[in-house]
Amino acid sequence: MNQQKRNLTIRPTKRYMIVRVFPLLVFLFISLAAAYLIEDLILIASGVLILMIAWQVIYLATVKYEITRTQIIYSRGILSYETDYLEMYRVKDYIKKQSLIARILGIMNFTLITSDKSHPEFSMIGIQDSNIPDTVRKLVELSRKTNRVLQVD
């Protein structure tokens, strides 16, 4: 119970979801306007776009990054659920990315360069702009000391 209080759970923000589906929404409104003129085909395309938008929003709502003292646990999925584990001592480098829109919305993408075979580059997308890079860096150092891991390039 006490261990769970120390874990940090991060999810993509609602603002990121809006940014992610915005191009689809624009295309949807254009196709709905065209549907007024060319009814059937455009109406079907609009329905498909609505389903794509809903799928993207539901999928992003399932994404979860849990940061513990020893690993990052990445969970996601709608019909099938998948969970990956990245050991902290495998992290080599960190990259924080923010486009202009992301800076305005206060979100970021945080990428970890790792020695992990399944995730050489691991990205936490659309998360709240915060001190996560510093937190992860400190946890990586602690994990390396605890596990007596020496990074060799």
Automatic annotation (TrEMBL):
Protein name: YdbS-like PH domain-containing protein
Sorted UniProt keywords: Membrane, Transmembrane, Transmembrane helix
Top-level taxon: Bacteria
Domain YdbS-like PH: 62-128
Organism: Persicobacter diffluens
TM segment ranges: 21-38, 44-63
